[in-house]
Fold this sequence. Notes:
Blueprint: H1 3-27, E1 33-36, E2 42-49, E3 54-62, E4 71-72, E5 80-81, E6 93-96, E7 102-106, E8 109-110, E9 115-121, E10 126-132, E11 141-145, E12 154-158, E13 163-169, E14 172-181, E15 197-200
Parallel strand pairs: 7-14
Antiparallel strand pairs: 1-13, 2-3, 2-12, 3-6, 4-5, 7-8, 9-10, 9-15, 10-11, 11-12, 13-14
Amino acid sequence: MDVMARFRTVAAAGLALAATSASVVLAQGSLFTAVPVELSNFVLVSAPIGQGERSQLNIYEQRTTKRPCFAVDAGSPAMVDPLLSTFDFSGVCNRYIDGNGYSLRIGGDDLGTRYRLSVVNTGRDIELLATPTKNPSQPTMLVARAGGAASGFVQLKLAPGWTLKRRAYGKKSLGHLYVYRDSAPVAGSSPTSEPAETEQSGSSVAPSY
């Protein structure tokens, strides 16, 4: 084989490899699917950090009826008693406390590396916001709110269009939740209040599955 023939062979192989790599990258968005959950078994919570000056998102799941994992008061805002913190909840409850346990997803697009979920105290309310981490020109989205000012463990109620789903690989459900909606909110629906405090959960403790 002459030099030019070898060059053409190598170039063709390189293009084929590049095309394969591009296909793998494009497939990452559809690697996992989102499957429905029984929403009544979950509660989203604004959970205080340390002395309570800042808060982060916790999600508690009631897996069995063996004993209650949480109690939610009536009213708005509603206080949450995290009962699961008082016993060994293995097999009874799940607790999702950081990005290892939950992420943002819109339709078929997993946005976990591009958005973070932050609890914001506006002084008049407690809001759960999805804020961009890589492209500040992307919109901030209101995901949930408490319905008033409060301190301690406070329930966050999902805004219209938002729900929870579970990550799945093929037919296998995984121990990761999506804060999910079918499509992005319409332009202009982002929150207008100025946040007083914002916190992304930085806990290194993985959720119990």
